[in-house]
Design goal:
By secondary structure, the protein is α+β, with helices and mostly antiparallel strands. It has helices spanning 3-6, 19-23, 52-74, 79-90, 157-164, 173-187, 223-260, 313-331, 336-350, 435-453, 461-469, 507-522, 528-545, 586-593; strands at residues 97-103, 118-129, 135-137, 149-151, 168-169, 195-201, 206-213, 271-278, 288-295, 301-308, 356-364, 369-375, 381-383, 389-391, 409-413, 419-423, 481-488, 496-501, 550-556, 559-566, 596-602, 605-613. The strands form 4 sheets. Strands 1, 2, 3, 4, 5, 6 and 7 form a 7-stranded antiparallel sheet that branches. Strands 8-17-16-13-14 form a 5-stranded antiparallel sheet, with helices on one face. The longest helix has 38 residues, at 223-260. It starts with a helix and ends with a strand.
Length: 616
Amino acid sequence: MTEHQSTSHEGRRPLVARPHERTRPRQEEAPSATPGPAAVPAPATGGGVPDPAAIARSEGDRLRFVGAATRRIARGIDLDEIVLGLCRASVPTFTDAILVYLRDPLPVGDERPAVPFMLRLRRTDRLRLADDGAEELDLQAEPLPAPQLCEVRNGGALAEVLRGVRPVFGDSASARAALPDLLGDSIGVPSGRRAILAPLRGRRRVIGAAVFLRRPERPAFEANDLLVAAQLATHTALGIDKAVLYGREAYIADELQRTMLPDSLPQPTGVKLASRYLPAAETARVGGDWYDAIPLPGSRVALVVGDVMGHSMTSAAIMGQLRTTAQTLAGLDLPPQEVLHHLDEQAQRLGSDRMATCLYAVYDPVAHRITIANAGHPPPVLLHLGGRAEVLRVPPGAPIGVGGVDFEAVELDAPAGATLLLYTDGLVESRLRDVWTGIEQLRERLAATAQLTGPDHSPPLEALCDDVLDMLGPGDRDDDIALLAARFDGIAPSDVAYWFLEPEEQAPGRARRLARRALARWGLEELSDSVELLVSEVVTNAVRYAERPVTLRLLRTDVLRCEVGDDSPQLPRQRRARDTDEGGRGLFLVNRLARRWGATRLSSGKVVWFELGTRP
């Protein structure tokens, strides 16, 4: 059955145009380079009666245009893409020029709009004439000279049109009073139906307005064009609503994740640290990757990198919980495998589907050793001083959250000058390569970078991190990336002095003598008075509660660090002693004379430490 036949059956409502469409002469219509939905004429049959088939074709053109335009608008993800989609879909097919105004600022969700109601010109596009008189689309042409900002006064003509929500012709009384506020004096309100003012209404409120303009040479807008403008405005406004909400959620998730990562890395003795974090591509920017470096007693440092599975705000929140748990467990000085075991239990408490990979390593600069435990994470890479890059063989383990599995730790050499690189799988795995291919490429990249600095020097850490990230290609940003690099400097045996002291009254005096001899050997006699006083106070406090031998260790690096350990778990607290008290002033002296001091509880007791500068 043809279209003409379908419109002639009784009981069927024919697709006919508005009255003015049927009576408008064809010769008044100017040709358009790009026929739009309103530019298709309705040819008349004999006697001036419109041809129903032509009318149906015209209506079909409008429907096809609206469908294509709304699809183009819907493709946009952010606000600018949606507005650009509206402009490019409208010019020149539907209009010769368009101005898009949005609230300034745009309210988000149920947020109360700002007062006064201000509209800011977001974008203008127009059709211009080339030098030879032919029409061409130039979206980069100079924008229309419209006001950038206008106030929608309560009770004014523009406010009334926006409140009405429906598009109106420019020659209507309400639009003639409202358009000058948007167009200004430099453009003016076109005569006849060559302007449409369409409010942009989101889910809760009016968020802007669009003005469609046609030149005098082009046919004026028709009644059906108001429906087209309404469709364009509705889809654009809903898209802007979604884009604003998505932008806010993405911003919150991104800030949530970044605030859970370390603001800065510590500078522990005997190791240098550098880190990088890259969010994923815009389609999956929120992830659960994290890294951390936690100073431990005995000048050791815990190096942690982990990856929560998934890309959502939930992943970022779980990452923060696991990172906090890891910091707490590290403060208890638990072995790496025990830390992963407790993290596994914590992940199961958070939910049955809360899974993550994690690698936890503890570096001891005095022993030049590193202990590593792994929970389903990619293995670290060790770059030796001579330029050889080695993928460390560590037990793979099961991811955190699986439950019912044991984790195993291995102890490896950590030679001075070597660099350990911990990373998440986003660095080595993507749609274009599997994880082991990526690990091999990373190893080769590190070796090539080391060759540039020579066999006797290690590449600078910051430059090394940047060079590693340069290996990423255009399709390698499916996941976020966390990177932690540690350069092992270590502490030489000649810079370490270590003793055991019996918990007896003579222990403080012996500690002072031993400290004095060590300082003399290191040429730090100018610190003797301060060190002897502080060592005496800290050892006296340890002997008071200890039942087993007390440990005393001095380490000389860029600072002088003193560590006193005992088997009592009770941490000392600084307090203000009264005038009649015989004790209670030891930690007050430590706090006044030391550059830094602290106390850490261990599984077998505690360590109290303080540091003094070695340079005047």
